[in-house]
Amino acid sequence: MVTTNIDPCRHRAVLFDMDGVITDTASVHAAAWKRLFDRYLADRPRMPGEDHRPFSAADYTRYVEGKPRVDGVLDFLGSRGIALPHGSADDDIGLETGHGLGKLKDRYFRDALASASTLLFGDAVPLIDSLRRHGIRTAVTSASHNCARVLEQAGAAQLFDVRVDGVLADELGLPGKPEPAVFLEAARRLDTQASASVVVEDAQAGVQAARIGGFGLVIGVARTGPPSRLLEAGADVVVSALSDVSVSESIERRLSEVPDGLDRWNDIVDRLQGRRIVLLLDFDGTLAPIRNDPTKVAMPLKARQVLQQLVRTCPVAILSGRDLQDVRLRVRIDGLWYAGSHGFELAGPGDEPITQEAGDSALPDLDDAERLLSSELEPVPGARVDRKRFALAVHYRNVRPDDVDHVISTVDRIGDSFPALRTTHGRRVVELLPDIDWNKGRALRWLLDRMGFSGADVVPVFAGDDYTDEDALREIHDDGIGIVVRSVEHGDRLTWAHYSVDNPRALSALLARFASLLGTA
Ligand SMILES: O=P(O)(O)OC[C@H]1O[C@H](O[C@H]2O[C@H](CO)[C@@H](O)[C@H](O)[C@H]2O)[C@H](O)[C@@H](O)[C@@H]1O
């Protein structure tokens, strides 16, 4: 389960989208759009180049969700080769213009709304109450012209300090999402900076708008579908319910706020004084730079030399998402401990794997998922299905941008069909893993025990670059030193690390300082 936190020390306001986040009305909109478009496409004489297939759930997500009504009409029909005039607000209902068909959709929506009973999601009020108790102001920010009506009917009109809806946006001439104007207007009315405000959204267009607007935290809400479409649109985190959002002072920071480890070497030395160091290092993107072809990755010479020095004076473990055997062959240094498949496979300095049966029961599902994914993604140029013993990685680094959504949603769909598996995301890779409470963080702690290094005099030092490494960074946050390797791909995401470095080469330079300190250089 993914959870996230809103920090009253950093976040002064929270802007909520309404449909699908606060009120259970996204499905009412989706049904109204379908009624409109299916009838329109069935009645319209077919012209060359037009696609008259029925409106689908994917069309809703891609072309209309979160957008102003007229944009939704024109964007969806445009995707089907049908260019209608924009029209004007005076157009008759049903006229073949953006406004005319938009009005018809609105009639269908209101018809359905009139018979809807419970509109408010049960998890909305507890979160908003908690925000209020912490002095955080709230806004509802919706493209809908029915926003006030829906809130009234849901009994939620009093929940928000500010409302910026489709009616106000029209009055002010604000463009709709994915432009950030409505969010920025709400932040202005709440008297807060975008960077100190949180946006909570369920639509890709809304997430994009919040990202473009420079909002401090963008929380995606995927109550039913997969989280990946919102992550790809730029959400910092995607939860499946508002009950997964807490409000308290937190210690995660933005990458840009984390001090550079080389600059703060003296602080690190202070923290190491008199303690036994254990080094735990991720491989791809951390020791070795990212490459387009995962099979071509090799340990850089500098990293190899420094690890060879370090292993003579302190325990060193490699914690990788790669298959155990794969990462061992790439590192090839005697005396190291290893965790492969994101911690599901473990090995000591000898050749024998350490028994850890956490993922065994998921093996048949991984086999079946591998067969399905290999055949479904075989036609997608650049998609690469990589089986490890306890994980299945689908790489999309070399996939055309237009095919990326398809690849991710295929993995999500197939992953969802196997109860024993869960989905994780990394750098241009989506992976299926055994769905048990085990990750790099748990594996790290388990390895420390196994290595005989678990006392208060031990300081675990972990370095990693990716989302899955955050489990390990979080695990050692209170008793160790966490180092994150920055990358352009991760922008300014949140991290549990204490220090950062620019790239794998800078990490090797930092590790060389550890080697000097330990007296081996
Ligand atoms: O935990 P790690 O050691 O960092 O492994 C995570 C994944 O790393 C590899 O994929 C990543 O690196 C590739 C080579 O540079 C790159 O092409 C890909 O886009 C990255 O996601 C590895 O291939 C995966 O199996 C690991 O899970």
From TrEMBL:
Decide whether keyword Hydrolase is in the record. yes
The first-level EC class reads hydrolase
Record-linked Gene3D superfamilies: HAD superfamily/HAD-like, Putative phosphatase, domain 2, Trehalose-6-phosphate phosphatase related protein, domain 2
Q: Which InterPro entries match?
A: HAD-like_sf, HAD-SF_hydro_IA, HAD-SF_hydro_IIB, HAD_sf, OTSB-like, PGP-like_dom2, Trehalose_PPase
State what protein this is by name: Trehalose 6-phosphate phosphatase
Q: Which family does it belong to?
A: Belongs to the trehalose phosphatase family.
Determine if Hydrolase is one of this entry's keywords.
yes
| Involved pathway(s) | Glycan biosynthesis; trehalose biosynthesis
Question: What UniProt keywords apply to this chain's record, in alphabetical order?
Answer: Hydrolase, Magnesium, Metal-binding
Q: Which reaction does it catalyse?
A: alpha,alpha-trehalose 6-phosphate + H2O = alpha,alpha-trehalose + phosphate
Q: Which EC number(s) does UniProt give? A: 3.1.3.12
Query: Per its UniProt record, what NCBIfam families does this chain match?
Result: HAD-SF-IA-v3, HAD-SF-IIB, T6PP
Q: Which PANTHER family match?
A: TREHALOSE 6-PHOSPHATE PHOSPHATASE
Q: Which GO terms describe its molecular function?
A: metal ion binding; trehalose-phosphatase activity
The coenzyme or cofactor needed here is:
Mg(2+)
Q: What does this protein do?
A: Removes the phosphate from trehalose 6-phosphate to produce free trehalose.
Q: Please give a single GO biological process term from the UniProt record.
A: trehalose biosynthetic process
A Pfam match is Hydrolase
